[in-house]
Amino acid sequence: MIKTWSTPATVQEERPIPCVLCGGSRFKKHFSYGDFRYVRCTICGLVQINPQPVPAAVRDRYGADYLSYERANETAFLRLQELALKDAGFFDDLEDYLTVREPPAVLDIGCATGALLSSLREKGWQVTGVEISRPQAEYARRERNLDVRTRPLEENRFPPDSFRAVLASHLIEHLNDPASLVREVYRILLPGGCFYVTTPNIAGFQARLLGKRWRSAIFDHLYLFSAKTLPALLRRNGFTVEKTVTWGGLAAGLAPPRIKAWADRAAKKLNRGDVMIVRARKPNEKFAGLYPHVEQPPQVRPFPNQDFRQNASGSESSGFIPLHVPTGVF
Questions:
Q1: C-beta separation of 278 from 244 below 8 A
Q2: What distance in Å separates the CA atoms of residue 147 and residue 135, rounded to the nearest whole number?
Q3: CB–CB of 301/18 below 8 Å?
Q4: Helix locations, the chain, DSSP H
Q5: Please, what's the b/e burial string for 40-55 (b: 16 or more CB within 10 A of its CB; e: otherwise)?
Q6: In which band, very low, low, confident or very high, does the pLDDT at 317 lie, cut at 50, 70 and 90?
Q7: Which of helix, strand or coil describes residue 50?
Q8: Which residue in 16, 91, 115, 249 is a FRET match for 98, CA 20 to 30 A apart?
Q9: Is the pLDDT of residue 223 over 80?
Q10: Neighbour count for residue 182 (Cβ, 10 Å)
């Protein structure tokens, strides 16, 4: 099975962290590789690399090699992104808004070489990008004349209520603190605006079939979300989840074309695809009642507060991995 491209696994400075979704500190082994391993939170089920490499080490991974990879696959990636956005209702979403006099503003976080932003600009959007890989950002500026920022999203300090839509395709799984990104997106979105998040789905058929050989279980993916854990993260940070769409039953080469086509149709129909896109909206009282189709967030009690030092009990023999998380990590 061919894995998704990743920087080579190396030994880096790392630290244990509490679960970014629920704050838990008890984990079970999930996938184990030579230089890194995935664990699953025993409270919320989020799969993650933990202990995690420190943020500085993560940022250093995205250099010239990623530019070469993105340029070689640019046309195919753009087609997949546009198909996913179409499935999520992105191109129809403006019909849900009141008429505006100026082009709607969209932000693409992790915009790579800017192919999608360039396409959206041609469709009338006012576009901005964020890309921490400096070679890719420079390419997007030079070749496409795009406004692309190289600082992480939170460091750009966009004004509140700046964008009508924010996109993040195959980005959130690379971040040390995806909850921080979600909170910042909420802040900079206009009320009633939408966040479109695309990421691999660990609850899909391929991941369940292949286990640790799954193509998205790679060194650069710090989190492996499911169609439950990603919406949960969005809801806990203020969003209303409207739609989740998955696709991809079997990767090319795993089965004859006819069986692959059948598996792809089944995975999409059953929402068990290999990749998912989630559309989440920042609530707006002015739009109340306009979205009867919206999936309302469940009324749940918050996860219990965790004292990481006291709850870091357990043993390898019981299957639990205690992580001694320093206070003040987040």
A1: yes
A2: 14
A3: no
A4: 55-59, 64-72, 74-87, 115-122, 134-144, 153-156, 178-188, 205-210, 229-235, 257-269
A5: bbbbbbbbbbbbbbee
A6: very low
A7: coil
A8: 115
A9: yes
A10: 25
Rounded Cα distance between 126 and 116, Å, is: 12
Structure-block tokens of residue 244: 């989740």
**Residue-wise burial string across 95-115, b where 16 or more C-beta atoms lie within 10 A, e elsewhere:** eebeeeeeebbbbbbbbbbbb
Per DSSP, the residues of 132-189 read: S-HHHHHHHHHHH---EE-S-HHHH-PPTT-EEEEEEES-GGG-S-HHHHHHHHHHHE
Residue pair 87/277 in contact (Cβ under 8 Å)? The answer is: yes
Residue with tokens 């184990």: 32
DSSP 108: E
The confidence score (pLDDT) of residue 154 equals 96
Indicate the angle between helix axes 115-122 and 74-87, nearest 10 degrees.
Answer: 60
**Do residues 25 and 312 make contact, with C-beta atoms less than 8 angstroms apart?**
yes
What domains are defined for the chain? 62-214+227-284 (3.40.50.150)
CA–CA gap between residue 297 and residue 321 (Å, rounded): 31
Q: What distance in Å separates the CA atoms of residue 242 and residue 293, rounded to the nearest whole number? A: 7
Length of the chain counted residue by residue: 330
Beta strand pairing status for 126-130 and 148-149?
Answer: parallel
Percentage of the chain modeled with pLDDT above 90 = 68
List, for residues 258-283, the tens digit of each pLDDT value. 998 999 999 999 999 999 999 999 99
Q: Which amino acid is at 153?
A: L
- Give me 208's structure tokens: 């369940």
pTM beyond 0.70: the answer is: yes
| Residue 153 backbone class (left: φ over 0; alpha: ψ -120 to 50; beta: rest) | alpha
31-53 residue pLDDT tens: 989 889 999 999 999 999 999 99
